[in-house]
Predict the structure.
Amino acid sequence: MKLDILAFGAHPDDVELGCSGTIAKEVSLGKKVGVIDLTRGELGTRGSVEIRDQEASLAAEILGLTVRENLNMRDGFFVNDEVHQMEIIKRIRKYRPEIVICNAIEDRHIDHGKGSKLVSDACFLSGLRKIETTHEGEVQEAWRPKVVYHYIQWKNIEPDFVVDISDFIDQKTQSILAYASQFYSENSNEPVTPIATKNFLESIHYRSQDFGRLIGVDYAEGFTTERYVAVKRLGDLI
């Protein structure tokens, strides 16, 4: 199955927080989008892995994803080595995305930066035909995505470009709130964490507003790149 876009998150909910508005927009345009979570978030203070699995499935439905997988890497302890790279290479070759989106290059949670580098390195290695992989008994062909983009997470990193998500902010919010165990609820008896506060949920909304303000729209999401952003003509910019 070929996907147009494949988004990676170190934990279930990373993608929703970082780029779900953009994903919803691309799906509405007929693009096939998949999400791969590296871990099940088993070290999370709130909820459980079983609950997170259910929440991730619900969020996938809300966003209209074509596929969602979890690689069951160890939360907090996965590393950027050959074993982990090969697992991602197999998925890149399986889905052959033109665009890969992954975690912020640098962030508060150590898994975000690690996951970012791991996926980026695997995208390059996936294009080397002398690295051999198989899927369901068939040898996979080499495949390298055209671009790798990084969504913005906890830290306020200056974006290289922003995407207008004004018509999809409600869908983004719904996909985030699918993770009810992880975020603020006045009726919850779970421990308070940095992301389980009312202020954090509000910050996701007003960050989108602020990115939108910068380009003259209501809401937007920001991304960083690994190379220059190219356009065919000046009219491609808004």
